[in-house]
Design brief:
The chain is of the alpha/beta class. The chain has twelve helices and eight strands.
Amino acid sequence: MKRIEGVIPPIITPFDKDGAINEKLAEKEMRYAVSAGVDGLSVGGSTGEGPTLRDEELTALVTVAKEVVSQDQPVVCGIMRTCTRDAVRAGLAAREAGADAIMVTPTAYNVLVPDEEGMFEFYRTLSEEVQLPIIIYNVIPQNTITPRLFGRLLSETEFVRGVKQSVGSVPALYAMKMVCGDRGKVYAATDDMLFTCYELGAAGAISAILAVFPALCVEMWKCHKNGDIRRGREIQDELYECWQSIAGNQFPIRLKYALKVMGREPGCCRSPIVHLAEDEKRRIEKAFAKIMK
């Protein structure tokens, strides 16, 4: 099994105006990241508008990513479904397409959120049926995977191997790290404090800012590995305002507008994410102008 560590950017999913995936633009973004020296690629996550993607669209993105990465670089496929059956089906499709791991979000629809036993069963079934390394994408506020449950899943399932810790920011990441020790890996997803997360023991990041600034983020990871704390924190500070300008609701359209400001071709978002207010565009332009000088 491939090593999943370091800088693994979640790639955007560029759509045409009719909502179809533009695979050429997706491949272009993947190659941009790989040329910057990243350690792998992730598709179908929040950055890639994963909840809107059908199984066959996930497999198409995995297939493109496999053609771009080197033999030792992993492709991680996001799975965002509302029930165990559909998550298993998507996971099997990702495995068939060549994914090296799946990153699975807890179920999100509020009145269908299960208790802890239900979430244990959800991930246990995925482990048994899909048989690929599983990274829990801990991002749902109303259905948070606790450190206790994460520890149990590491102990009692074969394929749960790590957690991408988003909800709860840095303290939640540290709590996860304290529970899992060396049994599993904790990946950073607090985009504005990645270097801080590395210092606390994160095994890398699967985080949107990596897809926007892959070269800077690779440099920041190398600073951590080489002990260059001053430069690592300097890069974290440089990226802070940019992230603040694109974070929040309708995140994919904010990020894609930022990529346009940078001269890249991100395509459209999938409806109904179709409108970004002019004042928000100006805020993004102002933040990114500083770092692009």
